[in-house]
Amino acid sequence: MKKLNLSLIVLLMVIGFAATTITLQVKGYINLFFDEDTFESSIIFSSVKSNDGTTTLLEQDTIFTLDTKEFTEVGDTATVDFIITNNSEHYDAEVLIECGLKEESKLFENYVTIEGLPEEPISLKSGKSDFESLTIKYSQQTAAESFEVGIACKIDPTALPKAEVDDSDEKYTVSLLVEGNGKVEVKKDNEKVDPPILEIAQGEIDQFTATPEVGYYLSSVSCINGYKILAEVGKEKTLEQTITVFNSRLEIEDECTIVFEQLLDESEEDEFEYSIGNEVQIYNDDILEDFYVIKDSDISEPTVTLISKYAIDTSTYKQSDPARAIKFVTTIDWKSWCTSGSCKLIDDVEPSENYVALYHAYWYGQKLGVKGRLLYYSEYYALKDVNSDQANGTYASNGYINYWLNQVNSNGYAYAVRSKSTYLDKNSTLVNGCGLRPVIEVPKSLIVHE
Question: What are phi and psi of 173, to 5 degrees?
């Protein structure tokens, strides 16, 4: 077996009453060279992320800078996630990762602990990757107001004969969902991908880029079935962001979500309150659409409830004037459970296609990254008391909008707003002139402010 000499990864940490900063410095790539004619590869840190802060990668110097939360209480931790990749085409490898306090920091070994790394070498097949986490913990109170700790990590790989290709090279589909508002462009290998889908074998990584429009930033990334996803998140991440997805040796598909939020000045971020009847705007793709507030929302509340100004075109899920008429349902099936007067339809789950109006309201909301529904009978009258024009839709080209409400009765009739008043419509299975004005509850960060 051939031993490989590698550089050290250096972490610098300050503990005290100032923000903690961890810096990982890799002196160039960690290159592995054997015979120039037959072998040239590297085992590298492919991605690094702090789960309680932000990451900056300076490519020229290969320096990762992570800004974490303040370490002011015993028990505070900072976790650094990273992916190690064996880029050799000809060798498998075993890699031992060892981290500890630098010699000049040993004075503080009772106050800082390092946890989470494997005790035994990890196996890395040719072209495969491994995900690891390093947790640094402020473990014991010190009298010092602040102190700096240096942590050194040694990567010690050993080359192994390359094993034969097995079934682990089967690729699995990873669907990428983009949530939030504003237009986002997703690319892989500099080519736009729509819908964004990756194909990743066990133990392998893939990367793509996501670029938000001006005024938005990457706020979070996550996967639901155990794949690992690494990206730099935070309010300064407003340009093209590289996102790495790692198949954690799983034989399943996964779905990963990237969330973008509107960037607000910190002085303004928590100072918005809304009253019923306010008019606001939200981006739907690259189009600003108008909405009315239907419920008061004070400064402490993170969301606000809105109704679309116009009815929507269900073929594009965009607001349209004039309105596009749709059926309320294809089959009336609520008589058995709606037994006394009027009642609301169930809208806390994804509606079936039978409930045409609810179905399209739901998917309009999904397009904006939230859940859509129909306006309740009581909400119509609450808005009408404040602004009847908004409730009736007088800004439509015909002077008002006929649209469906989320209210039915035991005779199989559905409520609608017709000619500026509520109306019991017995022809709910027909396309007879009623359109759809979805109601959405959105984070205040999605609302566009001048």
Answer: -80, 135
- State which amino acid sits at residue 107: L
Strand partners, 71: none
Summarised one tens digit per residue, pLDDT across range 305-359 is 999 999 999 888 899 877 678 999 888 887 777 766 677 776 655 567 788 899 8
Sheet with 216-223: strands ordered across: 197-201, 171-180, 254-262, 216-223
> What one-character DSSP code corresponds to residue 274?
B
- In degrees and rounded to multiples of 5, residue 390 shows phi and psi of -65, -40
Cα separation, 218 vs 12, in Å, equals: 26
What lies within 8 Å, CB to CB, of 244 at 6+ separation is 46, 47, 83, 205, 206, 207, 229, 230, 231
Task: Annotate 294-355 with DSSP letters as a single string.
Answer: -S-B-TT-SEEEEEESS-EETTTTEE-SS-----S-SS---TTT--SSEEPPP-SSPPPTTS
Phi and psi dihedrals of 408, rounded to 5?
Answer: -135, 175
Alpha carbon of 14 to those of 20, 23, 126, 133: distances in Å? Answer: 5, 10, 38, 20
Distance CA 119, CA 374 (A): 56
Q: Is-contact 433 293, C-beta < 8 A?
A: no
SS (H, E, C) 277-311: CCEEEEEECCEEEEEEECCCECCCCCEEEEEECCC
Q: What predicted TM-score, i.e. pTM, was given to this entire model?
A: 0.45
- Across 247-256, b (16+ Cβ under 10 Å) vs e yields bbeeeebbeb
* Alpha carbons 417 and 328: distance in angstroms, whole number: 13
Which amino acid makes up residue 30?
I
CA distances from 299 to 2, 217, 262, 274, 379 (A): 63, 22, 17, 8, 21
With left for phi above 0 and alpha for psi between -120 and 50, is residue 334 left, alpha or beta? Answer: alpha
Give the tens place of pLDDT for each residue, 369-378. 788 899 998 8
Specify the 3-state DSSP secondary structure of 388: helix
